[in-house]
Amino acid sequence: MDNVLDAAGLTNPAVRDYVKYWAELTGAERIEVVSAADDARLIAECLEAGELDPAGDGLYYSRSYHKDTARSEERTVVATSTPTDKGLYNNWRDAAEMTALQKENMRGASAGKTMYVIPYLMAPPGNALAPWATGVELTDCRTVVLHMIRMARVGVEYVNDLADPNQFVRAVHVTGDLENLGQGTPEDSRYFVTVADERTILHYGSSYGGNALLGKIAHGLRQAAYDGWASKKFLAEQYMLIGIHDKETGKDYHICGGFPSASGKTNLAMMLAPDVLGDRYHVSFYGDDIAWLWVDEASGKLYGMNPEYGVFGVAKDTNEGTNPTALHSIDEGSGAIFTNIAYNPTTREVWWEGRTPEPPADNTGWLDWKGNAISERTAERADEPWAHPNSRFTTTLDNVPNIASDYNAAAGVPIDAIIFGGRTRDREPLIRAIHDLAEGVYDGLTLGAEATAAAEGKEGVLRYDPMSNRPFMAYGEGDYAQHYLDVVGAAKDQPIFAHVNWFQRGEDGRFLWPGYRDNLRPLLWLLQLKNGEVKGRETAVGIIPTEDELHLDGVDITPEDLNTILTINVPRWKQEMANREEHLSQFERLPEAIWEAHRRVAANLENEPEG
Ligand code: OXD
Ligand code: MN
User: Fold this and answer.
1) DSSP-derived 3-state class of residue 353
2) pTM higher than 0.90, yes or no?
3) How far is 42 from 142, CA to CA, in rounded Å?
């Protein structure tokens, strides 16, 4: 084994010991150290082995096992040796117990397979947080390697010269026998464990997405959130990050923000300026899913960066209207990999629901995401989707047409605004700016998405998703709120917080705001408010734009609808406050500042005229 590590130039002695330990335990037959330069060879091997299919020039198609198509929140745990790390959502377990269990699951489970060693960095090289961003994933699945090469910076150079050779995340992924894991049954034997205080990730029983690409969610969110708290230095959030350049003043602004799933985060992150504003503003893309935030020591300002190197985007409903930028990031030659969409092996075309209004008219040769011929579907299966609803495309950041020119810069970017947005059919206006940090954190903690027919819950009652981090919480929510107040509170210029909602509906169910590119307009208003160029209108729950402050040239909206999305529905808000009180009461050690913010908003609502 030393020969292989030597040949790959892997010199870090702690990494070498770690690789040897797990190669022995998992029983892998051979090991291979990979770097980004191995991509073309590994693609060729996967095509040859049938693990990938060609989907056009420089595009690839893969399918996962049909019971392995999404993250499993129930099987995901954060383990530590400190019981007070238990929160409401982190599924806390004891570190020693979970480590022993996972070792038993993984023992001998890679027999006959190659164990790939993936040294990676979840940060732009040279970034202040790079010491927490280094990791080594071990995986027995070749397509996981190809995804990691797209989603992270990969190569031995990221681990060889660490100041502390031991400071890397140990991220072990063993696929397991997917056909015999009892997924979703009482016999489920999968476990996805982050042993946060040992900086060790042990995932067993999947080869899909966040369960298997360990740099992304397990390290980039759960482990990093814990590290940021333990070091007192940073936050790791499920946020998109964009830049807005004002060509008239030459100023650059950066906005990041969190949205529960299915609230349009990727579309917002990849948005282009509306045509009528395009001469003045350019919107650039930094990231669609994760941002790490810290205070820069030299300037005292809040900074942010996207630790990822790629986009693992949901395919469904991505089209020329909703997200042309995403479509061009998966053009021919991009090296993108599609997973679990519909595929035509004869023509090498791909399709997913919402790609075009109707599926291809001639279904000859088309296979659904499970590999079954569409033309052979029985009448009762005719309406089943062709693609899995959680099917994805994976592409690197520099394939995104409006990628920011400084996305790879070590410094990161100063953060001007932090926004939260749910999906709410009434109550939440288009945008409301929030007065201060404590109210901002309070707003984030009470973020949620409306219960829909698909998710359990009562109509109009939110499924709370604090900071859009519910599945990624690493320690107690009260401690998390205090840490957020501490990190952002230490910044010299405070970012402005706001809550946005693109999803208000009329009584007939139609969306009142056109959304997509027009979402830039309320964000521009927010920046103007921060700059003191507009005043807005005070309400009980924040400052909202007046109609004439929004740039509305070219927006298709009636005056009545505009009025509705710029008005506060006081009775609905009062109802919501009671739900929030119950929700927040579940968190231990919630800072008094958050309760004060809650009481302030509640008191304001009592004084607000109804209607
Ligand atoms: C997620 C993702 O699961 O980004 O949130 O993949
Ligand atoms: Mn995500």
Assistant:
1) coil
2) yes
3) 7
Q: Is the CB of 472 under 6 A from ligand 1?
A: no
518 CB within 6 A, ligand 1: no
Ligand with minimal distance to 391 CA: 1
Write the DSSP symbol of residue 196.
Answer: G
Q: What 8-state DSSP symbol labels residue 511?
A: B
Is residue 209 in contact with ligand 1, taking CB distance under 6 Å?
Answer: yes
* DSSP three-state, residue 94: strand
Long-range CB pairs of 65-68, under 8 A, 24+ apart, other chains included:
65/178, 65/179, 65/207, 65/208, 66/370, 67/178, 67/181, 67/183, 67/184, 68/178, 68/183, 68/206, 68/207, 68/208, 68/211
pLDDT at 177 over 90: yes
Alpha helices (H) along 27-82: 39-49
Edge-first strand listing for the sheet containing 302-305 = 234-237, 291-295, 302-305, 413-414
The predicted structure's pLDDT at residue 455: 46
Angle, helices 95-106/13-26, rounded to nearest 10 degrees? 60
Tell me if 71 CB under 6 Å of ligand 1.
Answer: yes
Tokens linked to 185: 């049954």
- Ligand 1 atom 2, closest CA: 210
Which atom of ligand 1 sits closest to the CA of residue 71? 3
**Two tokens, residue 28:** 């892998």
Question: Do the Cβ atoms of 476 and 85 come closer than 8 Å?
Answer: yes
pLDDT at 611: 58
Using the mean position of ligand 2's atoms as its centre, give its distance from the Cα of residue 346 in Å: 33
Atom of ligand 1 nearest to the CA of 312: 6
Residue 57 Cα to ligand 1 middle (Å): 27
Ligand 2 centre and the CA of 289: distance in Å? 5
> Mean pLDDT throughout 161-180?
97
Q: Is 210 in the pocket of ligand 1 (CB under 6 A)?
A: yes
Q: Give the bridge partners for 469, in sequence order.
A: none
Nearest to 470 by CA among 441, 448, 454, 451: 448
351 touches 403 (CB < 8 A): no
**Exposure class string for 584-598: b at 16+ Cβ within 10 A, else e:** beebeebbebbeebb
Within 341-448, residue ranges assigned H as helices are 437-445
Kindly report, residue by residue over 200-213, the tens digit of the pLDDT: 999 999 999 999 99
| Whether the CB of 289 sits within 6 Å of ligand 1 | yes
Ligand 1 within 6 A of CB of 86: no
Q: Please report how the helices 39-49 and 142-151 are oriented relative to each other, as an axis angle in degrees rounded to 10.
A: 150
Distance of CA 161 to the CA centre of its chain: 29
Q: From start to end of 67-222, where are the E strands?
A: 76-80, 92-94, 114-121, 134-139, 153-154, 169-174, 191-195, 200-204
312 lines ligand 1 (CB under 6 A): yes
List the structure tokens of 355. Answer: 């790609």
* Average confidence score pLDDT of the chain: 96
Q: Do 140 and 116 meet the contact criterion of CB atoms below 8 Å apart?
A: yes
Q: Which two tokens stand for residue 284?
A: 């650039």
Write out pLDDT tens, residues 86-141: 999 999 999 999 999 999 999 999 999 999 999 999 999 999 999 999 999 999 99
Q: Taking a C-beta distance cutoff of 8 angstroms, is the pair 252, 245 a contact?
A: yes
- Cβ contact 63:371 at 8 Å: yes
Tens digits of residue pLDDT in 41-64: 999 999 999 999 999 999 999 999
